[in-house]
């Protein structure tokens, strides 16, 4: 049983694997995006990073801080999804529901990054993408709690 | 063997599943708690979030920052527990010890949030709840390292 | 199959388990390092943490902030590695490649902490250690995406 649940022949696990991989790459890309903004605006947080003796450490560039807020929001939301998505897969859920939940999280978190840190889109774009992923993750957490409690 | 270890018929995995689900929900609740404080104190970090043209972005409200520090502390402690708790389960530990370690982490991290970000309780309340979870997580990490090393 | 993949008789999983445990301990040590710097420099972020009525909350000590930046960098890079390393193990990779990737991540993230937060070493020491782990993690993520997509 568990053998099948964590095997790539299980479409739920296959979908989880795909979206988890995509979201890991997306998160790693945030570091690159931060670096781009740091070099563009010459905003470096450590003395050893300063490229010229004329520069000073700086912590308040709005472009750098915006990417860092988007990145922190990923840590707060995508990382809990990783574990709860895996445990949800192990509860042997309906493939239809599970695959669409993983898609919802994956697509809405990519959208969240785009409207927050790439092209700033007025609200409620960011709030909507945030709540779709949060809702799907909370639903999986509830299913996991029920499976563990009874 | 592994079949049984990650099955809900294994009481260790069942307990891990329950507490991981509870702690994911608890972490997602921190976002809601932050939002509540942001609206209460009208502290928004992005220009597109400002509800009125009279408001300006603000980063230093003590109530918002307190919840954000509690949330970051969750990222630093609960997220490593998620992976180490799963790997510890796969080392086939004593059910008595494992289940009580998971309980200790779950209950102490909920207590940590309550005394840090809901009702501020004087020290050493926060330090104690912090160290119970840290100690349990470090013990599991040591067991996992030993299982992987020999 | 999966039975074997997550068993400690699988050398890939054994290596993953070892390095995941080591990196969890390393991350928990960052909290201790932060605490040491907080007490050394008397920099406390919460009123209830102040040891003497003469102290005030402080957020800008460079030694404390340096450790906190190193810790946040761990959250951004080590935590995604934890999930992607596990999923990569479940794709049944070449043991030689997988074990060396895990080693590369483990050793380079320890080096990153040493040159960032323990003894400050001029660049490109930190950049190099950062990119070794990032490259290995991104490679695993790609393999995981391919396994999930086809």
UniProtKB/TrEMBL annotation, chains A, B, C:
EC top class, as a word: transferase
GO MF terms held by the record: glutathione transferase activity
Catalysed reactions, semicolon-separated: RX + glutathione = an S-substituted glutathione + a halide anion + H(+)
Localization terms from the record: Endoplasmic reticulum membrane; Mitochondrion outer membrane
Bilayer-spanning residue ranges: 16-36, 78-98, 104-121, 128-149
Keyword Endoplasmic reticulum among UniProt keywords: yes
InterPro entries: MAPEG-like_dom_sf, Membr-assoc_MAPEG, MGST1-like
Membrane-topology annotation of the record: Multi-pass membrane protein
Key words, A-Z: Acetylation, Endoplasmic reticulum, Membrane, Mitochondrion, Mitochondrion outer membrane, Transferase, Transmembrane, Transmembrane helix
Pfam families: MAPEG
Top-level taxon: Eukaryota
EC number: 2.5.1.18
CC terms in the record's Gene Ontology section: endoplasmic reticulum membrane; mitochondrial outer membrane
Protein family (similarity comment): Belongs to the MAPEG family.
Subunit structure: Homotrimer; The trimer binds only one molecule of glutathione.
Functional description taken from the UniProt entry: Conjugation of reduced glutathione to a wide number of exogenous and endogenous hydrophobic electrophiles.
Protein name per its UniProtKB record: Microsomal glutathione S-transferase 1
Gene: LOC117577736
């Amino acid at each position: 049983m568990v053998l099948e649940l964590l095997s790539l022949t299980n479409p739920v696990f296959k979908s989880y694997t795909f979206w988890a991989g995509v979201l890991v790459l997306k998160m790693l890309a945030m570091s690159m995006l931060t670096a781009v903004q740091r070099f563009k605006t010459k905003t470096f947080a450590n003395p050893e990073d300063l490229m010229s003796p004329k520069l000073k450490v700086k912590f308040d560039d709005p472009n750098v801080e915006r990417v860092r807020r988007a990145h922190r929001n990923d840590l707060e939301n995508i990382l809990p999804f990783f574990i709860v998505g895996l445990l949800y897969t192990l509860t042997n859920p309906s493939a239809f529901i599970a695959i669409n939940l993983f898609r919802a999280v994956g697509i809405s978190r990519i959208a969240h990054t785009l409207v927050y840190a790439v092209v700033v889109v007025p609200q409620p774009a960011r709030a909507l993408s945030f709540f779709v992923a949060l809702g799907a993750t909370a639903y999986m957490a509830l299913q996991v709690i029920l499976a563990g409690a009874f």
